[in-house]
Design goal:
With 247 residues, the protein is α/β, with parallel strands linked by helices. 51% of the residues lie in helices and 11% in strands. The protein has 7 helices and 6 strands. The strands form 2 sheets. A 4-stranded parallel beta sheet has the order 3-4-5-6, with helices on both faces. Strands 1-2 form a two-stranded parallel ribbon. The structure holds nicotinamide-adenine-dinucleotide.
Length: 247
């Protein structure tokens, strides 16, 4: 069962998968709206009976820095990227607990959920929250044989930089960035990296492996820069802990 807010793209995705088997279905769904996720879940149970693997993948981009983006923009990004994942978890978990056959949840975060870079954005806030929530969920669900993976991709060749196409009116007008500003230049740089990013099907096969092997963290990229930044962050955290220990 594929679920997406964009019905034309959803229909095209379902069609593109039809050669894999007869049982590919689609349901229109806004993950920011829990009632919509519940309707999608009901359609899934009606179509397939038990659900064992849930991927909370819908997401929108959100650049702009902390205080130079609107609060409506913050709400939109958090509603989709964080609440959307939470809605998926809270909707499907009672069903998984009831059938008792275990399963797996995949939450899509990002490398932006591990590293803040020089601009902390609504996007980064949502993804840090998804990482934390997924880590806690993994521990909580272990006794139920429900695995959890948190997907933290680097740049992947998708339409993430055109996310405004799916912004509902209730979140106000599209965010515009001054192309001559620092954050505008950063957005251009990110767009170029996404354009030349990893093929989404490579990410998909890594996710499949993580489900099969029950791995918590799924990193698609291991670039030396990211490794060095992660190490710097962890080293600073541990050094601060050492300072506390020495006091
Ligand atoms: N592309 C990258 O470089 C990259 C890197 C790290 C993480 N991610 C994450 O990967 C996930 C997938 O994004 P993508 O890169 O494929 O971008 P994309 O824009 O191509 O796909 C996002 C999908 O989410 C859907 N969507 C948006 N809002 C929705 C809503 N409210 N309810 C239901 N569906 C909604 C869109 O219609 C679209 O099909 C996101 O969570 C994104 O943050 C992407």
């Amino acid at each position: 069962m594929l679920a997406d807010i964009e019905s034309d793209a959803l229909a095209a995705a379902v069609k593109s998968l039809e050669n894999l088997g007869p049982d590919i279905r689609g349901v229109t769904c806004d993950v920011a709206d829990v009632a919509s996720v519940e309707r999608a879940a009901k359609k899934s149970y009606e179509a397939f009976g038990k659900v064992r693997v849930v991927c909370n993948n819908a997401g929108v981009g959100g650049l702009g820095g902390i205080d130079n983006t609107s609060l409506e923009n913050w709400r939109w990004v958090l509603d989709v990227n964080l609440m959307g994942v939470l809605h998926g978890i809270c909707t499907f978990l009672p069903h998984s607990r009831a059938h008792g056959e275990g399963g797996h949840i995949v939450d899509t975060a990002s490398m932006a959920g591990m590293l803040t870079g020089s601009w902390f954005t609504p996007y980064g806030a949502s993804k840090f929250a998804v990482v934390g929530m997924s880590e806690a969920l993994a521990t909580q669900l272990k006794p139920l044989s429900i695995g959890v993976s948190v997907l933290c991709p680097g740049y992947v060749r998708t339409r993430i930089m055109e996310s405004e196409r799916n912004r509902p009116q209730r979140y106000g007008p599209a965010q515009t960035l001054d192309p001559t500003s620092r954050v505008g230049a950063l957005a251009r740089q990110v767009a170029e990296r996404v354009q030349s990013g990893m093929d989404p099907s490579d990410v998909a096969s890594q996710v499949l492996d993580a489900i099969r092997e029950d791995k918590l963290y799924v990193f698609t990229h291991s670039g030396p820069d990211w490794r060095a930044e992660l190490k710097k962050r962890f080293d600073e955290i541990l050094a601060a802990m050492d300072k506390a220990a020495a006091r």
